[in-house]
Amino acid sequence: MPLPLPAAILLSPALGAFVLCAIREDRDALIRRLAVTSMGISLACALAAVMTYNPVAGGYQHEVVIPWIRSLGINVHLGVDGISAVLVLLHAICAFTGVLISYAIKERVKEYYIFYLLLITGVFGVFLSLDLFFFYFFYEMAVIPMYPLIGIWGSDVKEQGVVRFSKEYAAMKLTVYLTLGAVVALTGILWLYASSGAKSFDLVALQRHLASAPLAPSLQQWIFPLLAVGFGVIAPMWPLHSWSPIGHAAAPSAVSMLHAGVLMKLGSYAIIRLAVGLLPAGAQMWLPWIAAIAVMNILYGGFVAMAQKDLKLIIGYSSSSHMGYVLLGIACLSPLALDGAVLLMFAHGLMTALAFALVGHVYDETHTRYLPDLGGLARQAPFIAGCGVIAALASSGLPGFGNFVAELLVFLGGWDRYPVQVICGTFGVVITAVYMLRFVRGTFFGELKPAFAHVRDAATPFARLPYVALIAVLLLIGCWPKPMLRLIDASARPLIERIAPSPMQEKYADVDSLDLQPLAPRETP
Amino acid sequence: MAWSLLSVELVVCAAILLMLAADLLVPAARRDSLWWLALGGIALAAVLLARQQPSGIGQTFQAMFLVDRFAVYFKGLFLLTAAVVIIMTREFHHHLPARVGAFYILLLTALLGMLVLASVNDLLLLFIGLEILTFSLYIMAAYLKTDARSVEAGMKYLILGSVSSGFLIYGIALLYGFCGSTSFPVIRAAIANGHAPLTAQAGLLLVLAGLGFKMAAVPFHLWVPDVYEGAPTPVVALLSVGSKMAGVVATLRLLYGVFMPLQGLWGPLLAVLSAATLLYGNLAAIPQTNIKRLLGYSSIGHAGYLLMGLSTASGSGVEAVGYYLLAYLFSNLTAFFVVVVAADAVGGDALDDYRGLSRRSGWLAAAMFIALLSLAGVPPLAGFVGKLLVLLATVESRRLWLVAIGAVNVAISLYYYLMVVKRMYLDAPRENSPIRVSPLTAGTLAFLVLGILAVGIFQEPFLQTIASALQP
Question: For chain B, which residues make up each domain, given as ranges?
Answer without folding.
Answer: 264-472
